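Q: Joint fold for the lines below.
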Amino acid sequence: MGFTGHAFVDWDDTIAENIRYFREVEAQISLLIAGRTGFDRDEVQRRGAELDVAVARQMGLVRESLAVAWLTCYREFAGRAGRPVDPVVEAELRRLCAIPYETRQELLPGAAETLRWLHEAGFEVTIWTAGEDAVQRRKIQESGLTRWIHRQTVVPEKTAERLRDAIGDRDPGHCFVVGNSRHSDIRPALTLGVAAYHVDVETWAYDHLDVDEEDPNYHRLTHIGELPRLLAQRFRLAV
Ligand SMILES: [Mg+2]
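A: Joint structure:
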């Protein structure tokens, strides 16, 4: 295919800010539920975060899961307080839960430069992202970075099998994954024996998992801007 190699680059919290929008909304929702039920805000937030992961594991990475988790949380605390569930509060929860999926994301520092470097160094750039197709494609489109991207692959959940499908007939020895999630980015890559560049930033509890960091295919980055130098070594390029 004439490419230097094939990059599979995660989107959320690797290229663009994402978890921040969820955290902001969750803080507002916890305050709202606490105010309406008399419980402590931290307790509400802890329970909501727990439900959020449980519901996402059950429903998959669909935008409805956030609202389902927080409506469940509200009903639980209302029940414990012996108060009726208020449809006005429920409507407000639904409105707040839509925000993280509709926000125009800010790019992370160094992300645009790194995508551009990959493209100019001759790598095939695939955005390898999980979630709802329309939501993920809109975010990528809005970023203004599509000129550095060859293809976009959106899957409901990232697994080793789906990564194998996305790699297709490319030489796995020339493929690598870049991402912030041990669960969604790193483990599937290591399972297939593909190089994994882990941008080790804060993640959602859903993504927490131990991976074998002794695996020679595992590489930790504290910042995506470190990627060009590491790839230049691996692929023997000038930076
Ligand atoms: Mg991510």
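Q: Anything notable?
A: The chain is about 50% helix and 15% strand. Strands lie at 5-9, 123-130, 151-155, 175-179, 195-199, 218-221.
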